[in-house]
Specification:
Number of helices: 9
Strand content: 15-25%
Number of strands: 13
Radius of gyration: 20 Å
Largest sheet: 5 strands, mixed
Order of helices and strands: EEEEHHHHEEEEEEHEHEHEHH
Structural class: alpha+beta
Strand order of the largest sheet: 9-11-10-12-13
Length: 293
């Protein structure tokens, strides 16, 4: 089945749960939501990756999907309702399993200090052979865990929810920067900024809004990757945040540099980021007043 050019639709709670992961959100589908031709799921891997959207699962050429696969996913969903995962405890176990020497090697490879990786509560999954970062809601509850493999590939642990990479001790700040991903967030923290990371460029707007309501920054800076999805996601977040934050800006690394971590690796300092912020357009909510008749 060729899915190129087809119209993908987003799953929501008014529709049946995803036949792949059993969730009601974030997954995309083609065709009838009860009987889809294909699904792109961000939680369950397949042999075909579709960028940041997730993994492609085709059903039309798999005659077993309606029986074996669908039944297996529904059973998994029912079990998950009865035995909810303690994500905070799992994150603590991963954190305790970290080998300091290996973490120092990772920090050197990423050109990020050990301290900020620890502030993001980095862990190690022996089973997966991957580094882990907890995903949290706006008040700090752990709602999922994302894995980062040696080749840079990332994959959320099944059953978890997307959330923020929230550093330890984040509190009231005049200026809050929002990056895409854990290591971009770490790069900004390393440069001395108050920062959080989003799971991906088009997620977690609700968590960001609730976080701004909690810590009440005067200004929100959305740091976008230098690509079309990153810019589109930054614009969407900025538009939403305008209702809750007095001033909102969007900045990007210079041309030819993909993200803020690469920008830092290329030699960017906090002054360079501050200059980009100062040179960006300030956005604020415009309120129209109508004269009384």
């Amino acid at each position: 089945m060729n899915t190129a050019g087809t119209e993908w639709k987003r799953r929501n709670r008014r529709l049946p749960q995803c036949q792949v992961c059993g969730h009601h959100d974030w997954c995309l589908y083609v065709g009838n939501p009860d009987d889809p031709d294909a699904i792109i799921c961000p939680r369950v891997e397949s042999s075909k990756r579709c960028g940041e959207a997730g993994w492609l699962h085709r059903f039309r050429h798999d005659p077993t999907w309606r029986t074996e696969r669908y039944h297996r996913r529904i059973v998994t969903r029912n079990v998950r309702k009865l035995t909810s995962t303690n994500w905070a405890a799992m994150a603590a176990q991963f954190s305790a399993a970290v080998d300091v020497c290996a973490l120092e090697d990772l920090a050197a490879n990423l050109r990020i200090t050990l301290r900020v990786l620890l502030d993001l509560d980095i862990g190690w999954s022996r089973k997966d052979g991957a580094w882990t970062f907890p995903l949290r809601d706006a008040i700090g509850n752990t709602v999922g865990i994302n894995r980062r493999y040696a080749n840079g590939k990332k994959c959320i642990i099944a059953g978890g929810h997307v959330g923020l990479y929230l550093p330890t001790g984040i509190d009231a700040a005049a200026q809050l920067l929002v990056a895409e991903g854990a290591t971009d967030c770490a790069a900004l923290l390393d440069l001395g900024f108050s920062a959080v990371g989003r799971f991906s460029c088009d997620t977690c707007s609700r968590h960001v809004v609730k976080l701004t309501q909690r810590i009440q920054p005067r200004e929100l800076i959305v740091v976008a990757d230098h690509d079309e999805p990153g810019q589109r996601g930054a614009e969407a977040l900025a538009s939403t945040a305008l209702v809750y934050v007095p001033l909102v800006r969007i900045i990007m690394p210079p041309t030819g540099i993909k993200d803020v971590r690469q920008w830092k690796q290329a030699g960017a300092t906090s002054s360079d980021v501050k200059a980009a912020i100062s040179g960006s357009t300030t956005r604020h909510l415009k309120v129209k007043r109508h004269a009384a008749r």
